[in-house]
Specification:
Distance between the termini: 45 Å
Shape: globular
Largest sheet: 2 strands, antiparallel
Helix content: 55-70%
Structural class: mainly alpha
Strand content: under 5%
Radius of gyration: 24 Å
């Protein structure tokens, strides 16, 4: 059996090696992919719809209504709030199949990013894991979804009563299930994260308009190349962004599974472009070729990413230099605030004196770059914070895995 240039056997092998899925899970994913290609004759549209569906399984309204709205503007909407409704109504999956695939993909997401232990009271990771577990269905056949209030009550009872909690067996079941899956997903890519990032890049609609619709001030400069969310859905979001969890805003973070998924989503689409110069090469076929080259050592995950996206390191080094300058020399020109002078027409303008001061500051700022460039990359990294430092070190070291300093 073969579809869009990849055999079912090769597809199965790739999904086991890269994501840790078992035969039953892969059979369901293959079935979904076949149905999507039947539904959408245009191959590029089918590829996008497949990645969108797999991505929205992990990022939808069950996690947060606000998050769902953000992703609608980032990747486009399935037309259904619940991805299982899409699978049943549009692809003809049974309720059992849709629940099972939804459950397994979300557990792969949790298991690939969370190191669990059964020690109580609960820490942030355990709360996150249990919430995802409950929202993923404890029993896929029942279709049960727990509300945020129910989850909060369960967590509060476990945290208060520990081993005596009436929900303790539920907690142990959660740990056992995710830890079992952890064995198969250890060191693997976060599948739904990779798919949502890929779908964001594939999405052709006006994503800048999506930011405006959400009330984001698009005049504020950021590091993304065109003001869209292509990077923010992946590496940029993991080192600069925020997450919305149970309708609460928390800082983003990057794990090894995130690092691999972020880079691979960009790398595979770039390789697909290269392979399609003469004859179109499908996304799945391109993925197969990419991972074969990665495993053979023909390419390196980090260097392939940097070679095709050199601005990423430039942006991180500019951020590091700005902090280096501030700590060792003086005020960077970016930090200068013009005096609030109002012109007759009501506009705020900067006077000539300020413009001259800024010009001198910029000349001084650029003059010291040579000193910074003399530092090795480990020294430069000290001027970056948290995930940005680790991400920078991983890329500079040409590492296939995320380096946590």
């Amino acid at each position: 059996e073969k579809l869009v240039g990849i055999s079912k056997d090769d597809f199965s092998k790739m999904y086991k090696e890269q994501y840790g899925f078992d035969d039953e899970e892969i059979e369901l994913i293959w079935k979904v992919m076949v149905r999507i290609y039947q539904k959408y004759p245009n191959i590029e549209e089918a590829e996008y719809q497949f990645c969108l569906l797999m991505g929205r399984i992990g990022y939808n309204k069950s996690d947060s209504e606000l998050q769902s709205s953000v992703w609608d503007n980032t990747t486009g909407s399935l037309g259904y709030e619940d991805p299982r409704d899409y699978m049943m109504n549009e692809l003809g999956l049974t309720k059992e199949e849709a629940n099972k695939l939804y459950y397994r993909v979300r557990l792969q997401h949790s298991a690939s990013i969370i190191n669990l232990n059964s020690q109580l009271p609960l820490g942030t990771n355990e709360v996150n894991a249990l919430s995802k577990f409950l929202n993923s269905e404890i029993n896929p056949d029942t279709g049960k979804i727990y509300t945020d209030e129910e989850i909060d009550n369960i967590l509060a009872d476990i945290d208060k009563n520990m081993n005596n909690s009436k929900y303790y067996n539920l907690w142990e079941s959660c740990l056992a299930t995710i830890n079992d899956m952890k064995v198969s997903t250890l060191g693997k890519n976060d599948f739904t994260h990779q798919m949502i990032t890929t779908a964001t890049i594939q999405y052709k609609e006006d994503k800048l308009k999506g930011k405006i619709d959400l009330g984001i001030d698009v005049s504020i400069p950021d590091y993304t190349k065109d003001g869209t969310w292509d990077d923010e859905a992946g590496w940029y979001g993991d080192i600069y962004g925020i997450n919305i969890f149970n309708n609460q805003v928390i800082p983003s973070s990057m794990s090894n599974s995130d690092y691999k998924s972020d880079l691979d989503s960009v790398n595979i689409l770039h390789m697909q472009q290269e392979l399609s110069k003469n004859t179109y090469c499908s996304y799945e076929q391109s993925s197969k070729i990419y991972y074969e080259k990665l495993q053979s050592g023909e390419i390196n995950r980090a260097s392939y990413f940097v070679n095709n996206n050199p601005d990423v390191l430039e942006q991180l080094e500019e951020e590091a230099y700005k902090k280096y300058y501030r700590e060792n020399i003086g005020t960077p020109p970016q930090d200068l605030v013009p005096p609030a002078i109002v012109s007759p027409d009501g506009a705020i303008v900067a006077n000539d004196q300020f413009q001259n001061e800024k010009k001198i500051c910029e000349e001084e700022y650029n003059k010291h770059r040579a000193e910074f460039e003399m530092l090795n990359f480990n020294k430069k990294a000290e001027y970056l914070s948290n995930e940005r430092k680790n991400f920078y070190l991983s890329l500079k070291a040409n590492s296939n895995n995320y380096i946590e300093s």
